[in-house]
Task: inverse folding
């Protein structure tokens, strides 16, 4: 059974109102700091962590951000922001906020700007999908009535879902992202062949905030199973949360606002995803793939098309899609602008084949084994822990280099330090999600920072020393490096003859 969100409403469409302030003042709106804590930090099993785990890779690399208080009283850093460091590792703050200058007090903080950008509720549709024994998956009800939801019935109920009792599914529908909660209930009905299956879902221009409605959707799908046709809570929810999208543009959130760059750590690639796996999706991802995550990291950084197969339930596999996207984070301005965007498609089925044919770079998951035969749709096929490719130019990338094993060893050590600190000290400074995101973010920044320095030097030649400075193996990672130079447009760089032998 999936865990309830600590923020989504449990029994109704309406959020629990804030307590009224004395003197008849209006309820206080959520402060930026309350919203900055990643939901992964507030789940019961996330525990706490200690600072100083070696995340900063030196000049130009991100640094752990200052902590804020979350709902359970623990201090949790927003994994999406960093602050300048001083000798003590924390930026000094004035003893009295009033000492700030007028210009500083008038200027909105980065936190305020980011929260203003991400806090908008933009639910563009709510729907109910049912399984009919004669017609198969069917769209039963939706709002608005004129919304194009063709094919959503096959996304909201994944192929093979009849084998599970509950599931949740992230997916894409055109320019929107969706979240649907599925449930399967036994009934004494010959017409329904002993089982009633439904799914209740929503669409939004971004998947960043969909997790907040997980518990609402779970409750509504149970209600639909027990009392079919009871749509009034869904109607009220839609009226309250529906989006007012601008007339121009497709509404897809693909990049951070320009004024958020600088101090932000690529917030869009580290969104507030509701983690429902008991151990958190990042820790589960690491344990599931082990050293193979270093192979997935390279393929993600090279913007390859990655397709993950797994039978239902598909919810946890959707989080593997999210984790793969996080492997490719780069926060250095201007890097990767000309390369294909590494976009999450989450769950896909045969109806998505035509859409995937036109994609240059993506990561997705499926429960349909037939995709393995569609070799032109993907570069890499992941079946359980097995990562394979039919493309000769990529096969050598599936072998771990010495540098890969060393990076994985360091990541494992940092996780062990984190878990020890959680257990022994009760610290609540960070989470495994933060550690995982920052580990690969810094590794990627380190690579491109070094490439930029070599490209700007009088002798733009990559030597064994410069490759090691990137954290790569001069011989074992030679092909990966050549692919990287080609994809990211470092055509002016020369490769030393010493790297030509592996």
Result:
């Amino acid at each position: 059974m999936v865990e309830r969100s600590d923020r989504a409403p449990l029994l109704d469409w309406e959020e629990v109102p804030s307590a009224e302030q004395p003197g008849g003042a209006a309820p206080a709106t959520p402060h930026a700091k309350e919203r900055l804590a990643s939901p992964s930090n507030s789940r019961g099993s996330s525990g706490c962590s200690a600072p100083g785990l070696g995340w900063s890779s030196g000049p130009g690399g991100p640094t752990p951000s200052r902590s804020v208080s979350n709902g359970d009283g623990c201090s949790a850093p927003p994994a999406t922001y960093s602050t300048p460091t001083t000798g003590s590792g924390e930026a000094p703050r004035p003893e009295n906020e009033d000492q700030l200058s007028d210009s500083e007090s008038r200027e909105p903080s980065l936190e305020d700007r980011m929260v203003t950008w991400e806090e908008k509720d933009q639910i563009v549709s709510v729907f109910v999908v049912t399984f009919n024994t004669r017609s198969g998956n069917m769209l039963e009800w939706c709002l608005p009535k004129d919304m194009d939801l063709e094919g959503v019935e096959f996304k909201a109920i994944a192929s093979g879902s009849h084998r599970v009792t509950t599931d949740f599914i992230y997916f894409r529908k055109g320019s929107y992202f969706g979240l649907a909660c599925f449930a399967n209930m036994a009934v004494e009905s010959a017409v329904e062949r002993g089982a009633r299956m439904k799914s209740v879902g929503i669409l939004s221009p971004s998947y960043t905030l969909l997790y907040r409605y997980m518990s609402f959707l779970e409750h509504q799908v149970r209600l639909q199973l027990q009392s079919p046709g009871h749509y009034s809570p869904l109607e009220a929810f839609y009226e309250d949360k529906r989006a007012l999208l601008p007339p121009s543009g497709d509404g897809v959130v693909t990049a951070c606002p320009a004024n958020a760059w600088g101090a932000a750590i690529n917030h869009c690639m580290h969104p507030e995803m509701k983690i429902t796996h008991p151990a958190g999706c990042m820790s589960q991802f690491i344990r599931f793939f082990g050293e193979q995550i270093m192979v997935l990291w390279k393929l993600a950084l090279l913007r390859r098309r990655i397709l993950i197969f797994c039978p239902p339930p598909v919810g946890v596999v959707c989080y593997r899609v999210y984790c793969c996207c996080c492997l490719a984070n780069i926060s250095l301005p201007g890097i990767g602008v000309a390369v294909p965007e590494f976009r999450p498609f989450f769950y896909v089925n045969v109806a998505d084949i035509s859409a995937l044919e036109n994609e240059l770079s993506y990561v997705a998951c499926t429960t349909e084994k037939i995709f393995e035969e569609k070799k032109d749709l993907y570069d890499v096929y992941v079946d359980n822990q097995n990562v394979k490719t039919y493309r000769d130019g990529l096969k050598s990338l599936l072998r771990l280099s010495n540098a890969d094993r060393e990076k994985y060893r360091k990541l494992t050590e940092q996780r062990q330090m984190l878990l020890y600190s959680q257990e022994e000290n009760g610290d609540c400074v960070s989470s495994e999600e933060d550690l995982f995101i920052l580990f690969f973010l810094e590794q990627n920044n380190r690579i491109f920072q070094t490439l930029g320095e070599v490209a700007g030097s009088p002798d733009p030649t990559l030597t064994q020393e410069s490759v090691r400075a990137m954290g790569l193996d001069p011989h074992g990672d030679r092909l990966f490096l050549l692919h990287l130079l080609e994809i990211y447009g470092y055509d002016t760089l020369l490769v030393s003859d010493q790297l030509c032998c592996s």
User: Anything to note?
Assistant: The longest strand covers residues 176-186. The CA atoms of residues 115 and 339 lie 28 Å apart. The two ends are 49 Å apart (CA to CA).
